[in-house]
Amino acid sequence: MWFRRDLRLADNPALASAVAAAGADQGVVPLFVLDPALSTPAGVPRRAYLAASLRDLGAAVGGLQLRRGDPAQEVVAVARAASATSVHIAADFGPRGRVRDRQVESALAAHGIELVRAGSPYAVPPGRVASKTGDPYQVFTPYSRAWRDHGWPPPMIAPRGVRWTRPLASHPLDPEPVPGGLRLPAAGERAAHRRWHAFLDRGLDRYAATRDRADLDSTSRMSVHLKWGEIHPRTMLAELARRRGAGAARYQTELAWREFYADVLWARPESAREYLRGEFASMEYDQPGPALTAWCDGLTGYPIVDAGMRQLRAEGWMHNRIRMVVASFLVKDLHVDWRHGARHFMRWLVDADLASNQHGWQWTAGCGTDAAPYFRIFNPTLQGKRFDPHGDYVRRYVPHLAQVDEKWIHQPWTLPGGPPPGYPAPIVDHDHERRESLRRVERLRGRSTVESQ
DNA sequence: TTTTGAGTTGTTCGA
DNA sequence: GTCGAACAACTCAAA
User: Fold this and answer.
1) Does residue A134 reach within 7 angstroms of strand C, measured from its CB?
2) Dihedral angle at the C-alpha atoms of A302, A415, A403, A401, nearest 10 degrees?
3) Distance (Å, whole) CA A352 – CA A349
4) I want to staple A391 with a disulfide (CB 3.0 to 4.6 A). Which of A19, A187, A266, A409 is the partner?
5) Pairing status of strand A65-68 against strand A31-34
6) For residue A228, what pLDDT band results from cuts at 50, 70 and 90?
7) Which nucleotides of C are covered by protein (CB under 7 A)?
8) Mean pLDDT for chain A?
């Protein structure tokens, strides 16, 4: 059993497949390969979280077979040492994972070992739902209807009495140095289930009404557990189906978004790096410079933006609504290409999922699937007042504003005497940059019209 | 085959 | 202060 993004024992079809193949007489090797090639895009917070999750999984199986190196070599080495006839995985639909799995598959085949794909990180695997013309959906709502109609199998329980074996020496799981002050959530399958049930009990009923409020702890915070497969969405959907109300319906829709973006990325793997809507190739963006640095450091002078960017560095996580606000600010107010922001998010988010991250950014930038209308530009002051009405979220992450009254908290430059010492004045004027953004889209449209004639 | 209506997340402007 | 219109273009599905 080669674990990758499915660090759990319950509701794990690949594990069930491995256990069935082993039968009564043979053991199952719980393998995880630390791939040095993947440590570049994954930032320190994500690797630290992974290490904690692997420790938890290791405890559940009496020790993981941990290897470090090229998966094509390591998986073959372990499989041969175990005299295995098959290696079992959950299918990976990401651009890199697909290539890697094909390489491992042929490396195994050279030794007569089969790579068996069973299950995926999704309730409905990418490619399974298509529009009437057979093409992948490009609009969320029709996709989500088809996704719901498609349905999914019920969850599977964890196999019992598995004889875990480790034919080779394990690579030590070095503790990742966690940057000072970084607060990571509890990792592992049990932590994921605890969090999920706490949310079902205390958060679901008010979820639809309060999920956008940054100052309240009103979201499920399940993204990191889903990212590492510590719980399967199918398990969550089964419990949601037993509940009534707007919260359950809304949460199901949010899970559908995750699957929609995985489907889009599977259909268009290049969209991890390139504009989904090709005409944006001629969109004018500014070279990233001090403005990008100020955004990353939470020093833009717009409190809701700065609070979000500082939450990201403090916790490896950011509230969903605030992700949209800071993304809109980078693209529409600072005129920086979405890919710079997406890269920063990938580096810092513990829940960083390539499909959701890149396509969330493309949506904000207006170049993605079902993209935001070009005129939908977030006003950081209004968004702050609406989704952090008393300023508690801002005060939590921006100490220099801790004493500011809610009347001025989202526009401290209007304070009598200006912003408090240590907090910057706005680096740009939102109203001015909003109009500049609209002008650039106008020019983009003008150009693409000319080109198409 | 053609037409029509709807489509995550907003803001500004003018009546 | 409130409220509706306007701000594109395109995809999808139903009529």
Assistant:
1) no
2) 20
3) 5
4) A409
5) parallel
6) very high
7) 7-9, 11-13
8) 93
